[in-house]
Design brief:
The radius of gyration is 15 Å and the shape is globular. The chain is built from four helices and five strands. Helix 1 packs across helix 2 and helix 3 crosses helix 4. With 152 residues, it is of the alpha/beta class.
Length: 152
């Protein structure tokens, strides 16, 4: 198997209201929280929403070699409305950041796990809502990085 190419990866947790963003170190070992973007649901159909534009700017700023987007698969392994919404978001992202590859990865339970970990650290209420999207993006990217390492 080929080794994971060196470079920063950006992790993305797409929500209806916010988009959590994380990044990896260049060696692909550790994912860390980066920022939470507000979804721009008012952009004209032919315009790039501000959250996608900001995400594209982060890809450039961090010289990312790839973007990993969490795909919410339900517990039965099926793609519901949320998964279709994320696939549409990822497709728009591809248009904005080509040739940087966008990978969809199963993110079942990432927000639940992130919320639990934050609560265990005493982060609750409003403070938790402010960072849970970033924490979920960390969970998504970290589990993807771990899976890539297990393959090599």
């Amino acid at each position: 198997m080929s080794k994971l190419t060196r470079g920063v990866r950006i992790g993305v947790d797409v929500g209806q209201v916010r988009v959590g963003i994380s990044r990896s170190d260049p060696d692909g070992i550790l994912a860390t929280p980066l920022v939470t973007l507000a979804r721009d649901l008012t952009a004209a159909p032919d315009a790039v929403p501000s959250d996608l534009a900001e995400l594209a700017a982060l890809v450039v700023e961090h010289e990312a070699v790839g973007v990993v987007v969490g795909l919410p698969v339900n517990l039965a392994g099926k793609h519901g409305p949320a998964a279709l919404h994320v696939k549409a978001y990822a497709a728009r992202l591809v248009d904005v950041i080509t040739p940087i590859p966008v990978t969809l990865t199963d993110e079942r339970m990432s927000t639940v796990v992130a919320s639990r970990r934050l609560a265990e650290r005493g982060v609750r209420g409003k403070r938790q809502r402010a960072v849970v999207d970033q924490a979920a993006a960390v969970e998504i990217l970290q589990s993807w990085l771990d899976a890539q390492r297990r393959r090599t």
